[in-house]
Amino acid sequence: MPFLPEEASSFARHVDHLYLFLIAITAFFSVLIGTLVVYFAIRYHRRAPDEVATEVHENAVLEIVWTVIPLGLVLIMFYWGTRVYFRITRPPANAIEIYVTAKQWMWKIQHTDGHREMNELHVPVGMPVRLTMASEDVIHSFYVPAFRFKRDVVPGRFSAAWFEAVKPGKYHLFCAEYCGTRHSNMIGWVYAMTPADYQAWLSGGTPGESLASAGAKRFVEHACNTCHGDQPGARGPSLAGIFGKVIHFSDGSSRIADEAYIRESIVNPQAKLVAGYPPIMPTFQGQISEEGLLQLTAYIKSLSSAPAGTGAAQTGPGLSPGPPTPIPPPSAPERKTQTP
């Protein structure tokens, strides 16, 4: 049995090298300190009941050495760990978008073109894949050991992470967070395929409704279009092109419109009020499932001209709209002013 699983993702070797370095440092100092403890216990033990210990004065050089060396090692660990962390948390702009819904005890996976999978995930080799994940019930954790990929999926929020498979194969998928009596059954497989095989897999099945199309239906179903339109005097801000841009709020703050912001605006619209609009949007907490929230998010992202998978990385000049023109509060209090 190998000491480590095979390295099947682009950042697996970086994680392994850091891990082995930490293990080596830990083992070295454990052996060193343990050996010195035993040696000193034997060398300087009390030999007679009336023996008086010899006074030992501090050694400045020794104290500097055993301070500087550990400090240097800790700084190396910090720098190396930071580089690995940024490598595995910043998805490339061209990443393929896939949406995952965790539920006791299964993984529901949706591709943007409408293909759906259950406890299986097909991805192409050599292409970065970005997962946007949500949980319908308890905390889960999407874990693929061969990819050194693990991300907790927490109820009430979106979790995003990415990987890039580097060799074709079939790899274990686990839930690494205890999630109930059938936790051990929440397993699956990730199939890394050559680009040609992946395209053949995509064309071999009949895709269902795309996420954006399903989200558009929910958008109308919940009457979001009655407020969020492009027409003058709309009760809510337009959502066209909103994803990846800077949104200004009534309290003077601002943030980039990413998946987390869209979700929060649906379930807790009063948390951040867009400047120039009254706080009249009702909450949809408990009315829309996590799968539905993912569909709405995909639809709103499709309204943006930003490339798929860019997320909050689309910042800079030209992407920061000014506050909308204020309008009088509408007479109907049930109307919405933010994301449905």
Map the helices and strands.
Layout: H1 12-43, H2 60-89, E1 96-103, E2 106-111, E3 116-118, E4 120-124, E5 128-135, E6 140-144, E7 149-153, E8 159-164, E9 169-175, E10 187-193, H3 195-204, H4 211-221, E11 246-248, E12 254-256, H5 259-267, H6 290-302
Parallel strand pairs: 1-5, 4-10
Antiparallel strand pairs: 1-2, 2-3, 5-8, 6-7, 6-9, 9-10, 11-12
Helix pairs in contact: 1-2, 4-6, 5-6
Task: Tell me what the structure shows.
This protein has 340 residues and is an alpha+beta fold. It has 3 domains: 69 residues; 109 residues, Cupredoxins -  blue copper proteins (Immunoglobulin-like), CATH 2.60.40; 103 residues, Cytochrome Bc1 Complex, Chain D, domain 2 (Orthogonal Bundle). Helix content is 31%, strand content 19%. The chain has 6 helices and 12 strands. A 5-stranded mixed sheet has the order 3-2-1-5-8.
Provide a brief overview of the structure.
This protein is α+β, with helices and mostly antiparallel strands and 340 residues long. The protein has six helices and twelve strands.
Descriptors for this entry?
340 residues; alpha+beta; Immunoglobulin-like; Cytochrome Bc1 Complex, Chain D, domain 2; 5-stranded mixed β-sheet; disordered C terminus
Pairing-aware structural class of the strands and helices? alpha+beta
List the total number of helices. 6
Q: What is the number of independent domains?
A: 3
Tell me roughly what share of residues is in helical segments: 25-40%
**Which topology of the largest domain does CATH recognise?**
Immunoglobulin-like
Overall pLDDT metric: 85
Uncertain residue ranges = 306-340
**Largest sheet: spatial strand order:** 3-2-1-5-8
Can you tell me the overall shape?
elongated
Task: Please report the first level of CATH classification, the CATH class of the largest domain.
Answer: Mainly Beta
Largest sheet: 5 strands, mixed
Q: How far apart are the termini?
A: 51 Å
Order of helices and strands: HHEEEEEEEEEEHHEEHH
Strand content: 15-25%
